[in-house]
Amino acid sequence: MALRKRRSIAQRLTARETEIVELLAQGLSNAEIADQLFIETSTVESHLGRAMAKIGARDRLQTVVWAYQNGVFRR
Fold first, then answer.
1. What radius of gyration do the chain's Cα atoms show?
2. 4: helix, coil or strand?
3. In a 10 Å sphere around its CB, with 0-12 CB exposed, 13-18 middle and 19+ buried, how is residue 26 labelled?
4. Best exposed site among 16, 26, 49, 63 by fewest CB in 10 Å?
5. How far apart are the C-alpha atoms of 65 and 62, rounded to whole Å?
6. What is the pLDDT of residues 14-60, one digit of tens each?
7. Contact criterion met (CB below 8 Å) for 51 and 43
8. Number of H helices, E strands in the chain
9. Hey, is 18 helix, strand or coil?
């Protein structure tokens, strides 16, 4: 049941939020993510903040751990 709940949360992330979480999990900073996606750093921060709220992460480290545990980031 817990696995189903985690998958449902992952599916609620927008494509852009997922993309940003994946880049974060690769070790990129907000500025590096912004450069790679051709968007403003403030936009990265907005997307990341919404993604973190959706998954219940309180910081970047928890977000990266969540990405690995939920298959958002694949090597």
1. 12
2. helix
3. middle
4. 49
5. 5
6. 999 999 999 999 999 999 999 999 999 999 999 999 999 999 999 99
7. no
8. 5, 0
9. helix
Q: Which amino acid is at 19?
A: E
Q: How many residues does the chain have?
A: 75
Single-letter residue type at 13 = L
CA distance 65 to 40: 25
pLDDT of the residue at 5: 57
Inter-residue long-range contacts of 57-61, CB under 8 Å, 24+ positions, other chains counted:
60/24
Give the number of other CB atoms < 10 A from CB of residue 73. Answer: 17
Measured between alpha carbons, how far apart are the two ends of the chain, in Å? 26
Which tokens is 72 given?
């958002």
